[in-house]
């Protein structure tokens, strides 16, 4: 894939500056809040560490950013010495920004959290294309770079944590082509997720059948849209989504239609198992200044709703709009408190604050509808995880929680579940390693031996193996009547 750098300037002369923002009268469509007007860099890549710090970085060959390297350092490897930081750590709780040192180019690179919780980031562009970089989740840690970490150069790569025993080297299934003729990859960028995987208890199910897995791919645009955008014609993006049960013997795509057209959207799995489709544009494509009509409204995809009627739209819900366009090089990431952090957008060459879609250095959060006041009162609070947060496969876990609210809402098997969310690494409209596991549940009971009668216990089972949950850190949530708790971090030990 080659990015076109030559087409930007002529295109900006033609401006359709409208953007799509369907306003919502109340806040039931969620709400937005600006967390930081400038973090000093444009958030092209984003990851969450187990200490709840966001690590975000840009490419590092784009000249000055708006934040300098720590301790007055300068990068002497570049032709003109660069004293600017291109990576920062952000604390969503305090909104503190700490500049970090990356000396090689990370443009369009990939990453994942190692089982120990270290952010491993790989590849990039130019001198960075074979570099592997490590960042530990600690107070004043900075990047360590291994210049020859990769055997082959990797630009626009992706990372996925695999189970330790992944050794068969066999193609297991071939899938049918997604119908409709829409392209989903750069520059016709769509997005995709592995939908929540529902685990069954090894106590009741002694077979070794793996759980069903489904993928959902949404948005994108026709294959020639980028050529047309280069010529000044901005084609509407696609509304289509395809959903495929990848574990079926003969799977078929189930096609659905989003209520809004979208290219360059991000798809973020929420702790409830629903999918937030956010960021991007309604016309044009990814790339340099070739998108129009930013889509400011996220759309919620209700994963388990059945499809009713010919229009097939009842799984989708249009949510409250932001005011900030998030186009090429923008990102989104789930936080442990259930909010979604959104940043980035730089369809320009270098940092340019005077184009129609200026380089954006801000971070904002979206509060999904489950955090709004009418639901808020039933937001559960996890008080303890027993025997502890270090988990072994198949182990029984007791999650103690308090349902919130004035009146003790009924708590029962049918309105409680627990999920584990694997933190992802997001860039270019894709969240690598993103996964939600719905844990097998053995029951809910009112806690005993506690002063508070609110105390409840949900008994769940840890995932059965590395095939469904590779070793590493996960955010554990309890969901009560559709409202998730804040996450507690747990770690599955490697075997
Ligand atoms: C920003 O982009 C505009 C429009 O393409 C261009 O005229 C201007 O020179 C750019 N500014 C910088 C600082 O690169
Ligand atoms: C970034 O720095 C430039 C140059 O100093 C300045 O013009 C611009 O307003 C700054 N942007 C933000 C968002 O702070
Ligand atoms: C939700 O509840 C918390 C704690 O009671 C409160 O601080 C917060 O303002 C509430 N949020 C909304 C949207 O009402």
TrEMBL record:
<dbReference type="Pfam" id="PF07250">
    <property type="entry name" value="Glyoxal_oxid_N"/>
</dbReference>
<dbReference type="InterPro" id="IPR037293">
    <property type="entry name" value="Gal_Oxidase_central_sf"/>
</dbReference>
<dbReference type="InterPro" id="IPR015202">
    <property type="entry name" value="GO-like_E_set"/>
</dbReference>
<dbReference type="InterPro" id="IPR009880">
    <property type="entry name" value="Glyoxal_oxidase_N"/>
</dbReference>
<dbReference type="InterPro" id="IPR014756">
    <property type="entry name" value="Ig_E-set"/>
</dbReference>
<protein>
    <recommendedName>
        <fullName>Galactose oxidase</fullName>
    </recommendedName>
</protein>
<feature type="domain" description="Galactose oxidase-like Early set">
    <location>
        <begin position="379"/>
        <end position="492"/>
    </location>
</feature>
<feature type="domain" description="Glyoxal oxidase N-terminal">
    <location>
        <begin position="165"/>
        <end position="370"/>
    </location>
</feature>
<feature type="domain" description="Glyoxal oxidase N-terminal">
    <location>
        <begin position="44"/>
        <end position="164"/>
    </location>
</feature>
<dbReference type="Pfam" id="PF09118">
    <property type="entry name" value="GO-like_E_set"/>
</dbReference>
<feature type="signal peptide">
    <location>
        <begin position="1"/>
        <end position="23"/>
    </location>
</feature>
<dbReference type="InterPro" id="IPR013783">
    <property type="entry name" value="Ig-like_fold"/>
</dbReference>
<dbReference type="InterPro" id="IPR011043">
    <property type="entry name" value="Gal_Oxase/kelch_b-propeller"/>
</dbReference>
<keyword id="KW-0732">Signal</keyword>
């Amino acid at each position: 894939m080659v990015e076109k750098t030559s087409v930007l300037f002529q295109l900006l002369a033609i401006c359709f500056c409208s953007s799509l923002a369907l306003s919502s009268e109340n806040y039931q469509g969620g709400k937005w809040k600006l967390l930081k007007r400038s973090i000093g860099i444009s958030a092209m890549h984003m990851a969450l560490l187990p200490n709840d710090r966001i690590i975000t970085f840009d490419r590092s060959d784009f000249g000055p950013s708006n934040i300098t390297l720590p301790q007055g350092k300068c990068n002497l490897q570049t032709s003109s010495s660069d004293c600017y930081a291109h990576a920062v750590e952000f604390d969503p709780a305090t909104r503190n920004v700490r500049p970090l040192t990356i000396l090689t180019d990370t443009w369009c690179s990939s990453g994942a959290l190692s089982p120990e919780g270290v952010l491993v980031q790989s590849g990039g562009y130019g001198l960075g294309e074979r570099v592997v970089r490590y960042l530990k989740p600690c107070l004043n840690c900075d990047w360590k770079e291994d210049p020859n970490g990769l055997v082959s150069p990797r630009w626009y790569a992706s990372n996925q944590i695999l189970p330790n025993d992944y050794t068969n080297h066999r193609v297991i299934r071939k899938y049918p082509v997604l119908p409709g003729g829409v392209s989903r990859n750069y520059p016709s960028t769509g997005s995709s997720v592995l939908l929540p995987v529902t685990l069954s208890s090894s106590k009741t199910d002694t077979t070794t059948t793996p759980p069903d897995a489904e993928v959902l791919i949404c948005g994108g645009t026709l294959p020639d849209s980028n050529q047309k955008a280069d010529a000044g014609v901005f084609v509407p993006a696609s509304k289509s989504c395809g959903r495929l049960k990848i574990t079926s013997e003969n799977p078929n795509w189930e096609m659905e239609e989003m209520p809004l057209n979208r290219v360059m959207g991000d798809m973020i799995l929420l702790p409830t198992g629903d999918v937030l489709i956010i960021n991007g544009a309604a016309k044009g494509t990814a790339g340099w200044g070739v998108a129009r009509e930013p889509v400011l409204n996220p759309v919620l995809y209700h994963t388990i709703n059945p499809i009713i009627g010919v229009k097939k739209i009842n799984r989708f819900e249009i949510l409250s709009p932001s005011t900030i366009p998030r186009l090429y090089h923008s990102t989104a990431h789930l936080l442990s408190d259930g909010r979604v952090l959104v940043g980035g957008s730089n369809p320009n060459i270098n940092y340019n604050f005077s184009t129609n879609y200026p380089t954006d250095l801000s971070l904002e959060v979206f509060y999904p509808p489950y955090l709004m006041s009418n639901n808020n009162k039933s937001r559960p609070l996890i008080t303890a995880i027993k025997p502890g947060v270090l988990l072994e496969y198949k182990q029984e876990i007791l999650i103690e929680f308090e349902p919130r609210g004035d009146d003790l809402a009924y708590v029962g098997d049918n309105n409680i579940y627990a999920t584990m969310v694997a933190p992802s690494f997001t860039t270019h409209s894709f969240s690598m390693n993103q996964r939600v596991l719905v844990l097998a549940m053995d029951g809910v009971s009112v806690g005993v031996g506690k002063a508070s009668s609110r105390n409840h216990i949900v008994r769940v089972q840890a995932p059965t193996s590395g095939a469904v949950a590779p070793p590493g850190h996960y955010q554990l949530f309890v969901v009560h009547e559709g409202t998730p708790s804040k996450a507690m971090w747990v770690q599955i030990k490697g075997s």
